[in-house]
Give the backbone structure.
Amino acid sequence: MGVHLGITKQAAAQLVDHLVESGSVERHPDPRDKRARLLVLTERGWACTAAAEQAAAETVARWEHQLGPGAYRQLTAALGALAEPGRLRPLW
């Protein structure tokens, strides 16, 4: 997980600990690998995810409304041209 996020394993473990303590994630045994733990979103974690997706959708809808359809298409095309190919990951 640390490599995917671009952080150390220790920082990833601290992040997971925080998510568990906040009630957003639970650790479960991995039935295929006794050394591993599966991270599962709780009801609170799913609610936070849904709220973040809703906030993002509302923001993008505001941009489209403010710019108009043509300018919004130009914006998304320009941003798409700037985006690095591959999976998204935080820059911290």
User: Anything to note?
Assistant: The CA atoms of residues 29 and 40 lie 10 Å apart. The longest helix spans residues 43-67. The chain has two domains: 1-41, 53-83. Helices lie at 2-5, 9-21, 43-67, 69-82.
